[in-house]
Structures are given as C-alpha cells and as structure tokens.
Automatic annotation (TrEMBL):
Keywords: Pyridoxal phosphate. Belongs to the pyridoxal phosphate-binding protein YggS/PROSC family. This is Pyridoxal phosphate homeostasis protein. PANTHER family: PROLINE SYNTHETASE CO-TRANSCRIBED BACTERIAL HOMOLOG PROTEIN (PTHR10146), PYRIDOXAL PHOSPHATE HOMEOSTASIS PROTEIN (PTHR10146:SF14).
Length: 234
C-alpha cells in the first residue's frame, strides 16, 4: 500500500473517531478540550505514527516495551508524548522510563519503587496512573479498588514520579458505562487526597462514548484509528 493511501485511511479513521468524540461531548455537555486522544499504535509501524503526527495527533500509546522503545526512538524527532499502557514488569522499568512520559499501568508497590529508582537515575519525571481492576480478573492487570489509595500515596511520595490519576479497561461482559461510573467514583475519592491527580484514562475504540459520558480525560484508541490488528505470536 502506498503512503498516500495509508495516509487517507488513517485520516478517515481519525475523522470518524473525532466525530464520535464530538457527539459524545455534546451528549455529555463536555468540551473536546477536556479530552486527550491517545493513539495506540501497537503492532503498527513507526511510519503510521508519523502519519498520525502529521494529522495533528500528539499522544501515542504502546503496550509492549520491546516494540515501544524502538518506535519511540524512530520517532524521537516528532516530540510526541508517549504513553505506556500495557502490563509492566519491573525489569522493564529502566527501558520504559527512557521514553515514556506517562505510565498508565501502575498496579503494585514494587512497580512504584522500580519506576521511581529509574526515573531518578535518568533525571526524568514520569507521570504515573494507578490502573484499577474493575472486575476480579487479576490476569488483565490492575490494582483492586481497595489498594488504590495506598498506591496513589506511594506514587505521590516517590521521587521522579508524578501521580496523575487513574486508568482502567472496561471488564468483558459488563456494560462499559457502569464500569466507568465506578472508576469515576474511585477517581473522585483519590482526588480528595491528591487534588492535582485529575486524569481518568478510560475508553478504547469500542467504548469511548461511554468513557466520555463518565468523565474520562484520556481515551486510548487503536483499532478505530489504525485498523484491526493482526493477531501476533509473542
Ligand atoms: C490495545 C489497547 C488499547 C486500544 O484498544 P482498541 O480497542 O484497539 O482501541 C487501549 N488500552 C490498552 C491498555 C490497550 O492495550
């Protein structure tokens, strides 16, 4: 496929996503400026990130360090904001801190200390969100709601890190709006102790309207922008 065709394809995806966001904002009485669209580029090449950037997208998300670190390096000249949204092993903290501006997936104390250590070492400040499990499936990552306050306190106290707010993935088999309403409640409780932590990262291609309706500030959208990902073998 030629670059021109791919550019048109991505532009059409972006226009459709922006139309959905605009509609959801109207319905919820919110302003588009309250929302950050994070383009999740996992499995897609750096050339697609360039095309997104040329179309005005400034925030890019990735979920695997190995892929993300290479892509971020290839796109270093674009001055984008990189979001790490996947499950993170502590032994990847050094690498992730090298390029990520925001880590959405902090879900345990060990990760707080590892990220803090590496951020200090790199002389960087990394914004971190607590990922909340909205169901009881620990396999998908995320802290249980009762663990969120302690993780928030730990992030707020950690050198090199800034506590930014909360993130969640809507559980399978539940109406996403109901799940995102619980996330919103958790976010309000956290903000009582940490007023600056106003990020609510919720909503993907299939449920971004429900996320907007329930106070999301960051939408993580892959498929609707770049197309359906091919299944891959790790
Ligand atoms: C892949 C991914 C997304 C984007 O999902 P789409 O359904 O392709 O929009 C969002 N958040 C996380 C954590 C992801 O891993």
């Amino acid at each position: 496929m030629t670059e021109t065709t791919r550019r048109d394809e991505i532009a059409a995806g972006l226009a459709e996503v922006e139309a959905t966001i605009a509609q959801a904002c109207r319905a919820a009485g919110r302003a588009r400026e309250e929302l950050t669209l994070v383009a999740v580029s996992k499995t897609y090449p750096a050339s697609d990130v360039r095309l997104l950037a040329a179309l005005g997208v400034r925030d890019v998300g990735e979920n695997r360090d190995q892929e993300a670190s290479v892509k971020a390096r290839e796109c270093a000249d674009l001055d984008l904001t990189w979001h790490f949204v996947g499950q993170l092993q502590t032994n990847k903290a050094r690498s992730v801190v090298g390029y990520a501006d925001v880590v959405h997936s902090v879900d345990r104390p060990r990760l707080v200390s590892a990220l803090s250590h590496e951020a200090v070492r790199a002389g960087r400040e990394v914004t971190c969100l607590v990922q909340v499990a909205l169901d009881d499936d620990p396999g998908r990552g995320g802290a249980r709601p009762v663990e969120v306050a302690a993780l928030a306190d730990a992030l707020a106290a950690a050198d090199g890190l800034r506590f930014g707010g909360v993130m969640a993935v809507a559980p399978l088999g539940e109406e996403p709006g109901r799940a995102f309403a619980r996330l919103w409640e958790i976010a309000q409780a956290v903000r009582a102790d940490h007023p600056g932590a106003d990020v609510i990262s919720a909503g993907m291609s299939g449920d971004l309207s429900e996320a907007v309706a329930n106070g999301a500030t960051h939408l993580r959208v892959g498929t609707a922008l770049l197309g359906r990902r091919k299944p891959f073998v790790r």
